[in-house]
Amino acid sequence: MLDQLSLLSFASGGWGQALLAGALVTVSLALACLPIGLPLGLLVALAARSRKRLPRAWATTFSTVFRGLPELLTLLIIYYGCQIAAQKVLAALGYEGEVLINTFLAAMVAFSLVFAAFSSEIWLMAFKTLPKGQLEACAALGLGKRTGFFRVVLPQLTRIALPGLSNNWLSLLKDTSLVSTISLIDLMRQTNLAVSVTKEPMLFYGVACLVYLLFSALSGRVFALLERRSNRHLQGARP
Amino acid sequence: MSPEQLLAYVLDPDLLERYGARFVDGLLVTAKLVAISFTLGALLGMFLALARMSQSLALQRLAAGYVYFFRGSPLLAQLFLLYYGLGSLKGFWQDLGLWWFFREAWYCALLAFTLNTAAYQAEIFRASLMAVAPGQYEAAKALNLKRSTTFFKVVLPQSLLVAIGPLGNELIMMIKASAIASLVTIYDLMGVTKLAFSRSFDFQIYLWAAVLYLLIVEVVRRTLKHLEARLGRHLN
């Protein structure tokens, strides 16, 4: 038992540091998907509500495709697809050689697209609960379209969308484990390496599950705080 | 560019002849994997939901812990834990006479998927059971119905109507998640795709797989929507 625990230590011979580095890659990959995924999801939702047909068709296609494809397949298509496309383009320009796409970048793009597709549904749902009077009030006050959206609509949308977005974030965090298949050294990949060296699959995969569980629990806490904060105007005055 | 050349880019006849039959096999494996694990998961999930709503605190905690673990960690890690982790205890399983089970990637994948989907389905069943109005229980009691009759004839039909939407979403999630089975040497649709790509290095193989997955998911989604409308037709 003690032998096994020493395998997890941070000293030399232990895998603690490697696992920690992998866990950092996992978290930073998931976080890196947010700056693209969130606005893109909102944009897709706006396009789906547009009065013109073309944006609507685009939005439907986008969300159907990226919600319907297995995440693993999306990842492989983006990774190999970009690689082959880059190779073809460079070959046309006269560069003959192996082209390797950065795995982190490919994974970031793939998961951002998936996250955008799923979150666009959440935004759409939130839009439906927004009373029409809010928009009419904006118009009555003579607020510009931009001000009305950012100051009136978006804050209310965010409050309603938070629980759904928190679910999306949790599945994003778990989906990042798939990047180990395109050999990005994340937590899962480090665990695989540790298992192949130490031959202790039970211990290391168990630890990996627990680390993911810890991340889920932590993000649950953060989202609970955010939700409480965004609902603070609804709570009664404290005695 | 002639139509034939264009066709060769997206659906090369040679490639189709070489790998078409394999793709059909892969589809069948995926369908079998999802069907079996989803059904078994529904049974286990129902028991878990009932355990979570039972009077016994120990049962409640146990079920809650189970659901928390399987929903909080990635399916990939769970699959590896079962296949490589439990598979490493060879002597133990041989003593129990269960080695044939944990030796096979197929059974391990089935087990992992069943356990995983059971956790998600337990939450769906629990929410749908709680959505049944308390007056229904009271009415059943006033009519002196047995506990089993109350559950199967009064509560369950009403709660399933609420559950069918989320259950459909879970089924679609399972179909997508089943692609992970290809990582433990199972030749499902994804496994076949990876095999074909590694031999031919033709990118269109991945596009075939994408179209097939989209088709399956879309057909399942539309069927379920239809079913839901049909089951709830007394409501509107």
UniProtKB/TrEMBL annotation, chain A:
<feature type="transmembrane region" description="Helical">
    <location>
        <begin position="100"/>
        <end position="127"/>
    </location>
</feature>
<dbReference type="InterPro" id="IPR010065">
    <property type="entry name" value="AA_ABC_transptr_permease_3TM"/>
</dbReference>
<feature type="transmembrane region" description="Helical">
    <location>
        <begin position="202"/>
        <end position="226"/>
    </location>
</feature>
<keyword id="KW-0813">Transport</keyword>
<dbReference type="GO" id="GO:0043190">
    <property type="term" value="C:ATP-binding cassette (ABC) transporter complex"/>
</dbReference>
<keyword id="KW-1003">Cell membrane</keyword>
<dbReference type="InterPro" id="IPR000515">
    <property type="entry name" value="MetI-like"/>
</dbReference>
<dbReference type="InterPro" id="IPR035906">
    <property type="entry name" value="MetI-like_sf"/>
</dbReference>
<dbReference type="Pfam" id="PF00528">
    <property type="entry name" value="BPD_transp_1"/>
</dbReference>
<comment type="similarity">
    <text>Belongs to the binding-protein-dependent transport system permease family. HisMQ subfamily.</text>
</comment>
<feature type="transmembrane region" description="Helical">
    <location>
        <begin position="20"/>
        <end position="46"/>
    </location>
</feature>
<keyword id="KW-0997">Cell inner membrane</keyword>
<dbReference type="GO" id="GO:0022857">
    <property type="term" value="F:transmembrane transporter activity"/>
</dbReference>
<keyword id="KW-0029">Amino-acid transport</keyword>
<dbReference type="InterPro" id="IPR051613">
    <property type="entry name" value="ABC_transp_permease_HisMQ"/>
</dbReference>
<keyword id="KW-1133">Transmembrane helix</keyword>
<feature type="domain" description="ABC transmembrane type-1">
    <location>
        <begin position="23"/>
        <end position="226"/>
    </location>
</feature>
<keyword id="KW-0812">Transmembrane</keyword>
<dbReference type="GO" id="GO:0006865">
    <property type="term" value="P:amino acid transport"/>
</dbReference>
<feature type="transmembrane region" description="Helical">
    <location>
        <begin position="58"/>
        <end position="80"/>
    </location>
</feature>
<protein>
    <submittedName>
        <fullName>ABC transporter permease subunit</fullName>
    </submittedName>
</protein>
<keyword id="KW-0472">Membrane</keyword>
From TrEMBL, chain B:
<dbReference type="GO" id="GO:0022857">
    <property type="term" value="F:transmembrane transporter activity"/>
</dbReference>
<feature type="domain" description="ABC transmembrane type-1">
    <location>
        <begin position="27"/>
        <end position="224"/>
    </location>
</feature>
<comment type="similarity">
    <text>Belongs to the binding-protein-dependent transport system permease family. HisMQ subfamily.</text>
</comment>
<protein>
    <submittedName>
        <fullName>ABC transporter permease subunit</fullName>
    </submittedName>
</protein>
<feature type="transmembrane region" description="Helical">
    <location>
        <begin position="203"/>
        <end position="220"/>
    </location>
</feature>
<keyword id="KW-1133">Transmembrane helix</keyword>
<keyword id="KW-0812">Transmembrane</keyword>
<dbReference type="InterPro" id="IPR000515">
    <property type="entry name" value="MetI-like"/>
</dbReference>
<dbReference type="GO" id="GO:0043190">
    <property type="term" value="C:ATP-binding cassette (ABC) transporter complex"/>
</dbReference>
<keyword id="KW-0029">Amino-acid transport</keyword>
<keyword id="KW-0472">Membrane</keyword>
<keyword id="KW-1003">Cell membrane</keyword>
<feature type="transmembrane region" description="Helical">
    <location>
        <begin position="63"/>
        <end position="86"/>
    </location>
</feature>
<feature type="transmembrane region" description="Helical">
    <location>
        <begin position="33"/>
        <end position="51"/>
    </location>
</feature>
<keyword id="KW-0813">Transport</keyword>
<feature type="transmembrane region" description="Helical">
    <location>
        <begin position="98"/>
        <end position="120"/>
    </location>
</feature>
<dbReference type="InterPro" id="IPR010065">
    <property type="entry name" value="AA_ABC_transptr_permease_3TM"/>
</dbReference>
<dbReference type="InterPro" id="IPR043429">
    <property type="entry name" value="ArtM/GltK/GlnP/TcyL/YhdX-like"/>
</dbReference>
<dbReference type="GO" id="GO:0006865">
    <property type="term" value="P:amino acid transport"/>
</dbReference>
<dbReference type="Pfam" id="PF00528">
    <property type="entry name" value="BPD_transp_1"/>
</dbReference>
<dbReference type="InterPro" id="IPR035906">
    <property type="entry name" value="MetI-like_sf"/>
</dbReference>
